[in-house]
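Notebook B, p. 112. Complex prediction, attempt 2.
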Amino acid sequence: DIQMTQSPSTLSASVGDRVTITCRASQSINIWLAWYQQKPGKAPNLLIYKASSLESGVPSRFSGSGSGTEFTLTISSLQPDDFAAYYCQQYNSFPRTFGQGTKVEIK
Amino acid sequence: EVQLVESGGGLVQPGGSLRLSCAASGFTFNSFEVNWVRQAPGKGLEWVSHISSSGTTIYYADSVKGRFTISRDNAKNSLYLQMNSLRAEDTAVYYCARKFGYFDLWGRGTLVTVSS
């Protein structure tokens, strides 16, 4: 199974900050990576797929990059609505696996 | 409206069974692969199972293999998860999620609690 490791686990930031979350795969997954945002009590929401493709309707302040084993999710200017948990997920192979999550908190 | 709606969750004793359902609407269900993903209380996301659009190709996480069975009825626009031999560690919110690789549409989830 491919292990996905996110860092940091928790991130404290202020509105307007540039935020970067890293996701590492235990083996190459090419560009088959997605990012999700999840707010408490809600289902996850797709932000990015194929490592850097922005899902329709997602604000352009979200961007993704990377290939192989190292990936990043960047929020260019953190907004109040962005305080949430973020998960990466690989879909290079089964079983699909998620990172453990990164919680973005208000500083 | 394009949506997935799960149902069937509840409280069940260890060793018991439960059948979850996911009703799809607003899109051509039989054109899409679908999955079950779960989330234990306060924990991260765990993929559980996948079924192809025709129902002929199925995958399971090792943690549920041999105990859970995924199925679909395209005539009823519905996805199912039959869960047998339930354990405390199966306690989670269960989501159905659309698509083969990444998941672009999720239901709101249904809570399964395994406890005596």
